[in-house]
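in:
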């Protein structure tokens, strides 16, 4: 018959054994130690000076004093002496000093393994509920990389649902950013958690911006709003091609160009200026008390708006000379250079026309 039990190594009573109570009491003592096991501390190395009866310690790797050479064992103070017992794999003990349940893995007392899959909720320093299944109360929350980058993903079921970050003050929402009811990215703000203003919305297809923080028309001068490229002007569209839409400027601020007929400048407000240095002429034809050049035509380098009659001015190319203009059309004007006396010198007159391009 075996002398001891296979698992707890408890001594068996043997046939015709004398003083059976001694063996029986040893078995009870071992059971009293391991059943509902609790230890004063884990990884203990120094025996206490005055332990209580039954006080038990889980010894560390280098115990000293009366515990020397008993690494990894349980040490229980029984009948004024230390009783040592080697724990078995999977034994559980309540660590009184840490207030935690520990498990012996064959080498160390570890925290019990926990299945973290499909939990109904997790509360860290606070409670979770059916809506907030993960709740964290702390000064900060850190999500960091594992070797390279890191992504925080917020997924929604369909385009009409919401995937967003909500910022609150004393549990009242004041700012929200994300996908709210569509796939455009938006930023909303609220003074009271009930009335919300969409400050910015970025179109998911085009990437263009809209919202209360953006200029909503060409004549919108609301303070604090962001200028739109198609309404406002800046370094990117100061110079370029001017354009308009129903009388509202929609292109660059200033457009400049030249042709064989001269130079032109167009402004976003519709003003157009044409200038030219014309062919040199002499003034030899008597006209009353004056002398004139032959009649010539100036074809404008760019046409003026239909129905817009430009205002013309110029100089005859020298002192004592001046220009006379006929009624202009949108595309050209006839002119003569006049002088007070006959002057066969050929000098180039200069002309300017000011009108509108729309």
């Amino acid at each position: 018959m075996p002398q001891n039990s296979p698992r707890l190594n408890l001594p068996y009573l043997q046939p015709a054994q004398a003083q059976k109570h001694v063996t029986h009491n040893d078995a009870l003592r071992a059971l009293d130690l391991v059943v509902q096991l609790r230890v004063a501390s884990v990884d203990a190395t120094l025996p206490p000076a005055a332990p209580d009866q039954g006080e038990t310690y889980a010894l560390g790797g280098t115990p000293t004093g009366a515990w020397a050479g008993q690494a990894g064992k349980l040490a229980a103070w029984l009948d004024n002496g230390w009783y040592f017992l080697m724990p078995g794999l999977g034994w559980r003990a309540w660590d009184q000093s840490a207030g935690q349940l520990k498990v012996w893995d064959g080498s160390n007392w570890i925290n019990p393994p926990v299945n973290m899959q499909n939990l109904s909720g997790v509360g860290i320093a606070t409670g979770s509920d059916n809506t907030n299944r993960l709740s964290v109360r702390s000064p900060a929350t850190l999500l960091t990389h594992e070797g390279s980058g890191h992504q925080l993903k917020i997924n929604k079921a369909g385009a009409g649902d919401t995937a967003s970050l909500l910022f609150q003050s004393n549990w009242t929402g004041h700012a929200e950013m994300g996908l709210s009811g569509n796939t455009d990215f938006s930023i909303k703000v609220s003074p009271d958690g009930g009335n919300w203003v969409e400050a910015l919305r970025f179109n998911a297809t085009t990437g263009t911006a809209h919202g209360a923080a953006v200029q909503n028309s060409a004549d919108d001068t609301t303070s604090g709003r962001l200028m739109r490229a198609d309404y406002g002007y800046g370094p990117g569209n100061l110079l370029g091609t001017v354009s308009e839409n129903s009388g509202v400027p929609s292109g660059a601020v200033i457009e400049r160009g030249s042709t064989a007929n001269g130079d032109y400048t167009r402004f976003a407000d519709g003003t157009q200026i044409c200038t030219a240095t014309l062919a040199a002429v002499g003034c030899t034809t008597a006209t009353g008390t004056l002398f004139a050049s032959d009649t010539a035509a100036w074809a404008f380098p760019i046409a003026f708006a239909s129905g817009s009659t430009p205002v013309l001015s110029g100089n005859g190319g020298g002192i004592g000379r001046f220009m006379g203009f006929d009624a202009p059309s949108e595309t050209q004007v006839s002119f003569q250079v006049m002088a007070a006396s006959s002057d066969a010198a050929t000098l180039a007159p200069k002309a300017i026309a000011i009108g509108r391009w729309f």
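note: Helices lie at 20-34.
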